[in-house]
Amino acid sequence: DADVTQTPRNRITKTGKRIMLECSQTKGHDRMYWYRQDPGLGLRLIYYSFDVKDINKGEISDGYSVSRQAQAKFSLSLESAIPNQTALYFCATSDWTSGGTFFGPGTRLTVL
Amino acid sequence: DQQVKQNSPSLSVQEGRISILNCDYTNSMFDYFLWYKKYPAEGPTFLISISSIKDKNEDGRFTVFLNKSAKHLSLHIVPSQPGDSAVYFCAARDSGYALNFGKGTSLLVTP
User: Fold this and answer.
1) What residue in A sits closest to B49 (Cα-Cα)?
2) Backbone angles phi, psi at A26, to 5 degrees
3) Is 80 exceeded by the pLDDT of residue A90?
4) Does B40 contact A at CB distance below 8 Å?
5) CA-to-CA distance for A81 and A77, rounded, in angstroms?
6) Which of A13-27, A29-43, B19-33 has the lowest mean pLDDT?
7) SS3 B85
8) What is the secondary structure of A23-62 as a DSSP string?
């Protein structure tokens, strides 16, 4: 079984709709992250969380919100989706002792 | 402003030869550098890393070199194999353990 899972894997939605992307991990890591990948731009950090009570904005947090429901769960929400949020979204986890970062398989989101 | 830069969007190498992927960074506070490999429709997978206190780390066919004074690192793959064809991302870790990524280099290894 995968250590970091993301649901859904693919989603097509319309402008103005609310969307939630979910991430779960079984690695027992305390730190979780949401990244976005756009063609030619690499991966950019949206939000990150060090533990359940800690949420931090990343480089491109505008238009997004997150919730850390438990150590193993970190969800990303788009309150009102817009077309330029069409991208590939990756959840990741890391262990504070080693710093190794592990990525989920990604969610491909298309906003029409 | 991008703190991690991979200035070569693509690289083509013959099978058996050396592949050299380059990366530059601007933030001297980065403490750890990592290379990730990514295939289409998959998440990035960790390849090799190096601490800022070292200048070389080797793992099988993969070697990462770090030149702190030049703020430059490189990944060497020897010998290159067709299965190495993928997009390679350089990443630098900051104090919050968040990764700052370059834009990636697409490596094609031809038979």
Assistant:
1) A100
2) -115, 15
3) yes
4) no
5) 9
6) A29-43
7) coil
8) EEESS--SEEEEEEEETTTEEEEEEEESSTT--EE-TT-T
H helix count then E strand count, chain B: 0, 11
- DSSP conformation class of B44: -
Which helix (H) or strand (E) covers residue A63, if one does?
A: none
Task: Name the amino acid, one letter, at A32.
Answer: M
Q: Is B69's pLDDT higher than 80? A: yes
CA angle A5, B32, B91 (to 5 degrees): 55
Angstrom CA distances, B55 to B33, B52, B75, B87, stand at: 11, 7, 12, 24
Classify residue B93 by burial, with Cβ atoms within 10 Å: 0-12, 13-18, 19+: buried
CB < 8 Å to B98, chain A: 33, 45, 48, 58
What's the CA gap between A36 and A96, in Å, rounded? Answer: 22
Region A21-50 average pLDDT: 92
Contact B43 A45 (CB under 8 A): no
Residues B27-46: pLDDT tens digits?
Answer: 999 989 999 999 988 899 99
Structure tokens that stand for B98 in this block: 């968040």
CA distance B40 to A1: 20
> Would you tell me which residues 59-98 of chain B have a C-beta closer than 8 angstroms to some C-beta of chain A?
89, 91, 93, 96-98
Respond yes or no on whether the N-terminal peptide bond of residue B79 is cis (omega within 30° of 0).
Answer: yes
